[in-house]
Amino acid sequence: MEGGATLADKAEFKECLRLTWSQPYILQLVFSAGIGGLLFGYDTGVISGALLYIRDDFTAVEKSTVLRETIVSMAVAGAIVGAGFGGWMNDKFGRKPSILIADALFLAGALIMALAPTPFVIIIGRIFVGLGVGMASMTAPLYISEASPARIRGALVSTNGLLITGGQFMAYLINLAFTKVKGTWRWMLGIAGLPAFIQFILMCMLPESPRWLYRQDRKEEAEAILRKIYPAAEVEEEIDSLRRSIEHEKQLEGSIGEQSLVGKLTKALSSKVVRRGLMAGVIAQVAQQFVGINTVMYYSPTIVQLAGFASNNTAMALSLITSGLNAIGSIVSMFFVDRAGRRHLMIISLVGIVLWLAVLGGTFLGAAHHAPPVSDLETRVFANQTCPEYSPSARWNCMNCLKAQSTCGFCAHGGDKLLPGACLAAGEASRRTCHAGNREFYTEGCPNNFGWLALVALGAYIVSYSPGMGTVPWIVNSEIYPLRFRGVCGGIAAVANWVSNLIVTQTFLSLTKALGTSATFFLFCAVSFFALVVVFFTVPETKGLQFEEVEKMLGEKDYKPWKRYRPDVSSKGRDIGLSVP
């Protein structure tokens, strides 16, 4: 899933470099916890390539799109449970034990998948990995935030977002490295256990979050850790600041009164300010997923094959482009979100997404219309492996062959892939026979001259998505809720994001089979256009506003999200002490 990053400005990054150089202990803390982000990104990227080889090894997976979707999406389902359980774990037992348990789950899942004898066992391993990813995705940024000096906190937490996209890119590289190794997908999935094991060892040598310790009245331990993090001249001031901050947190919690989740939620929803903020936050998170980004991140090589590139190796090599562009987009967002504004960046991003999804849909439509025909003469060469549903009297083309109920593949012409080819029963024997004649065997998309345009559109889609819809929804959700309800509202929005992710990943391949690839991308285009309209009318601009000013804006009688809020200059800066780091 696409994760969020806390944004920092240029001066904060310079201060970050200076302070981590003088206080290397900070870097040790951040790097050790940040491996959780790397694992999150790696799992997102690795399954997209491994799925191609799992499909080749298990006939049941090749014949069932639902089984392929389940293998991918069970990690997302596990992450939903892991994130919810992780929130309770964080509060009850601390950040460090939560990260250690997440690593143990991830390591167990990686080993189960690497040794899996059946697709069902792979699914079990995916659930274990998902539980670990869900816990790590929320705990790692929290640990980094609470163990970082306040003035460079944004820059250090941003590294977690960069490690997520870096993990995705690393996954594609590792996928490519193991394409020629026996047991391909087992190595791809199993090697994920290595960084989890490294993080487990490193975290055993690191302390608990000083903020959590202070809240548990283990003040001496917290102060000892702060003395390692801050320069000697700043320690006492930071200890006093932490004390005041936690006292204020407890006052806010007392003002809510009801401590149960249902009670907090009921009290939150009784506030017009919270309802408006929650509407904007949830819509932004759901829109982030329903524009189809995780179809690209989880199924990128498959989409490349749908565009007409049959080779697994070629598909994964070309998928590196999407992963690299996503990482670059995350960096671009960090520098422009405070200049362009959150709302403005989201709307520009959605306009680009709608445009390039339309181009993708049109490209696949053109490819389907120009699919090479199936030749009875060519098919007769493979007499024992002909697709059961093929009849010489039927005027089939490659697309008809691939849509056959019995799961068939198209063996392209040996001289020119655009000339008539053969329709064969899908399977390893047919693939080998086809390749023996120096032909390409297509099971996802058909050979065409439009593949390059699909790749350009896919790259442009990522460039449009990443700097805007990729990061801004998480930023909006960190700013739009009143402080006393930020935990419960942020949790609701995060669950909405994960559930939307699950829906998209569990239905994408089925949609391409039921509607066709072009219609599926046109559907995502229509949904993205609807998201653009809804975001325009529900998500306000929070750029440059203090938390108290955001709350005041949402409480205005004539509140209109599409109008820029102008705070009272005379009151700007008052009550800033209400913000809790």
UniProtKB/TrEMBL annotation:
Listed GO CC annotations: plasma membrane
Keyword Transmembrane helix: yes
UniProt subcellular location: Membrane
A Pfam cross-reference name: Sugar_tr
Spans through the membrane: 25-54, 66-86, 98-116, 122-144, 156-178, 184-206, 277-297, 317-337, 344-368, 450-476, 488-509, 521-539
Keyword Transport attributed: yes
InterPro entries in the record: MFS_dom, MFS_sugar_transport-like, MFS_trans_sf, Myo-inositol_Transporter, Sugar/inositol_transpt, Sugar_transporter_CS
Domain Major facilitator superfamily (MFS) profile, first and last residues per copy: 29-543
Keywords: Membrane, Transmembrane, Transmembrane helix, Transport
Membrane topology: Multi-pass membrane protein
Chief localisation class: membrane
One term of GO molecular function: myo-inositol:proton symporter activity
Family per similarity comment: Belongs to the major facilitator superfamily. Sugar transporter (TC 2.A.1.1) family.
Family annotation (PANTHER family): INOSITOL TRANSPORTER 4 (PTHR48020:SF24), PROTON MYO-INOSITOL COTRANSPORTER (PTHR48020)
Protein name (database record): Major facilitator superfamily (MFS) profile domain-containing protein
Species, as recorded: Oryza meridionalis
